[in-house]
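It is worth pausing here to work through a concrete case rather than discussing structure prediction in the abstract. The textbook approach is simple: state the sequence, then state the predicted structure, then interpret. We follow exactly that order.
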Amino acid sequence: MRDARIAVIGAGAAGLSLVRRLAAHADPPPVILLDAPPGPLRPPERTWCFWEEPGGEFDAVLTTSWSRLRVRSRDGRATLGRLAPLRYKMLRSPDFTALVAAELAKAPTVRRITATVTEVRDTPGGAHLHARATDGTPLHLRARWVFDSRPLPALPPARTTFLQHFRGWFVRTRDPAFDPATADLMDFRVPQPPRGLAFGYVLPLGPRQALIEYTQFSPTALPSQAYDDALHHYAERILGLGEFTRTGTETGVIPMTDAPLHRQRGHSVFRIGTAGGATRPSTGYTFAAVQRQARAIAAACAAGRRPVPPPCHSRRARTMDAILLRALATGRIDGPDFFADLFRHTSTPRLLRFLDGRSHPAEDLAIGLRTPVLPILRTAAELPLLRRRTRPEAPR
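Step two, the predicted structure:
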């Protein structure tokens, strides 16, 4: 039986961020990081985007950042927003992982084990973990606190659950095709699904390089070929890129749900990351909230408090997200028009504060008055009357 003060399951954004924060304290606790072996249980390479001022702690390993965001309505009208004093930043998971690995290599209190965790059991005074090493050897560990970042096996009952599902291509064009200072956050010129919405997403890496994505907010994911067909249409017919080469691909499915995601599995076992409510239900943004969550947990551990992960998003923000998801699901609001108008009538820094859940009630009211008020009010009134229902299975 191996002992540790803290065990962290999973070496994705949430797990690595927490271990990094714990190791940085003046008197760091003993930590075991359990990383799944290569295969379906290990997170695939991802791209994370977030906004903050220049000079952030990850600036040295950013892929790039942008000073302007653009949203295009279905008819092609463009709204260009300047972010100052913020920047929209892009960080790729291999670069983040390498940064954290280099830091943890100098942290004598951190042990990293490659193993598949098969059971976590809350016990008096701590928790027991059962795992299997890559050679099949059983491992038994004991920890005072356990933080589990693995995806939920099934989503809790919800009134509304959409999926944000997407595929992106990293492309290199023959001729200059992109403005390196401007990211296209939502381009609604793509064909729209029967329920929900779809948009293109363009993150330039240079005049001839970019990540272009096709994204849907809708009840179910698409067949694999449908994403490639949509990306071909977007790249060739809408963006008019001409001759280009694909240099990489990324795919993802993010649950957008008003289900309550419980952060406690027991007295000593907690969920973190998306499983612990870090993902903003209305947008899918996660990375910045993961950093806030990790800082709060590490501070509680350092102070000797029970390190319950705090809510990543306020009750007010979660309520607004639930209303928006329901209004989209019922078709009471038109998704492309809703988001295009929101960006057209609201300053970009204020809107980003709103999307990050950091706006004030007065700002929320001012933004709300720019939305279809009657459909939103009708949805807000019916929400408490709706039953939460179980989704057949969670996205993987």
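Step three, interpretation. The mean pLDDT is 93. DSSP finds nine helices and 16 strands in the chain.
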